[in-house]
Design a protein that fits this description.
The structure is a homohexamer.
Chain A: H1 7-18, H2 22-31, H3 37-50, H4 57-71, H5 75-87, H6 92-106, H7 108-127
Helix pairs in contact in A: 1-3, 4-5, 4-6, 5-7, 6-7
Chain lengths: 128, 128, 128, 128, 128, 128
């Protein structure tokens, strides 16, 4: 009833590529808020936009990490997207370069918060 | 006296790749502010960080456009970096995808401001 | 092809209620950027979200003015939404109260920028 | 000595309406910082501004939730104001709509943080 | 009716120290918005807070320039406060150092915007 | 290899003045992220910029506290810099005034977060 009839499945497929098991976890969280939330939010984010052609998923995740780190208002989601970026093929070295570049455009405190997020993600991804 | 002795020339070389003639224009602006400003600011931004290996200049400019658009506080510099990104090899289609992705992570008004910046850059680069 | 087949017409209908003539102006701007932009951005903003039941359009525009003023990164869109809010039934007195409340939650400079936007909108709406 | 002589009592009365017991808790916190803090901060926020006529308290709290969620820099206060909004008569359904609207104007990560805050508030208020 | 009976005169006195003629200009702007605005906004800003003892006006203006430059959302007010800072005794050299320090904590684009504001203020103050 | 050969030692000397033992703690954190991070980030922040003449370290730390509190995106670093400010000679009374001034320029929630940070720093510094 909101969005395209097949928007959510496409979104969940992309989310699963970003982190195995994420679709279940995220939809459970959103369903407990409101039954339309997953279709609207994940549908727009991942099916309408991130799932578009023109930039591959690996590069999109690099952009997402850059945006979240620069904004500095969603530390938990920054941690998720550093892991997701690595799952999508971004190397540890590339994460380091993105995070250092954040210091230029958003300042050193934003960079330091991104370092914290990146170190957590490195531990998880490299342990996994 | 500040930074590495050869930091500014390296920075200006990268800035020239981003936009022909930018080094003269930017250093003139910074020198009129303070004689150390160009060495410190351009030296850190472009020689210390953006000039590092690990991510190519094209991808770095995509990240910069993403960060500036998401932060929403430097419209003039966003316009510059859309042009710079295209000069570094980013296609118009890739700019479109970055800008649309901004709507997900920073909201529609940030995306609309980025559309304004991108359209100005498209006109300049495609006319040039 | 993206979103629901009927998302854009619903979005444009709401946009027309916010300001007569806005759909033509906004879609022309977005189409010049990319042919999918209007469907995606307006479709998500107005059909998927703002067009939902649960809060009436007048109250939604009050919320939008509050958010844009607090964020302080989209002055042009703040001006549009003050006018849109008044077109949706928000009184001048209510705009004043929203703008003063911005000073508490986002600070006096954000409030001052909102005063500038509100005064422009007052002139336009009250002249119109 | 600062502000109107009766500014603090009026402020605390409004704060009590927002959450029973909040005046004691908040003034204790502020007094431990500086003896003038409660009069200045609460006096300005609630007596000078939020206590004004022109918009009812319920609508003001909807605006506050919208602003805090869009700014994304005060998660604890966002949680407080979702509870306060519900205490002032905002329904769970209205909170849901505000939070979804945040995704349009401030992006999905801001919306996700607001969902976290809203779910905590729902549990507290509905348990209470 | 709002605030202390003598809050506005005290505020205007401080504003006059920050820039000769500013009280008339600012109150005219605020009065055209709402008759209570000057008393509330200037009264809180300058009488309740900036007029307090504990930090001298010169240092307060340095802090204001730092905050506005770091936030990056009120360029016009940043220009005003660079001029005001210099009128309150801050030297051109000190402005330069504040602006350079902004690059560390808020990033280079915020610093560049502050350079633009500072250069305008330098021209005005030094011409005056 | 990056920056001036002697940039890091100078930076660490300033960091030690801000908090005894901080150089070891911060470099350990940064080294675990990337071997170049300390030289680049601390070198730029403290040797290139904060270590410059023109403003004394005490005033610089007041500015840093103002900027971090106004931005509201780095609570941990705000706590560090309140302590650092006090170690550099800023009095508790001056911290109070900076924090109250934040309410004017960045809003009450930013001020409340700064109060939380300041109270933690007061306990640590005054206990120490």
């Amino acid at each position: 009833m909101t969005g395209a009839p097949d928007r959510l499945p496409k979104a969940l497929e992309i989310l699963e590529r970003l982190e195995a098991g994420a679709p279940e976890k995220v939809t459970k969280n959103l369903d407990a808020f409101h039954p339309d939330a997953a279709e609207l939010i994940l549908g727009y984010s991942f099916a309408d936009i991130v799932g578009r052609d023109g930039i591959d998923l690996k590069t999109r995740e690099m952009l997402t990490v850059a945006m979240l780190a620069a904004m500095g208002t969603a530390q938990g989601q920054l941690e998720f997207h550093v892991r997701a970026a690595m799952n999508a093929g971004v190397s540890r070295e590339e994460i380091v370069e993105i995070v250092l570049q954040v210091s230029v455009y958003a300042g050193v405190p934003a960079c330091m918060n991104a370092i914290t997020a990146a170190k957590k993600a490195f531990e998880t991804v490299e342990a996994g």
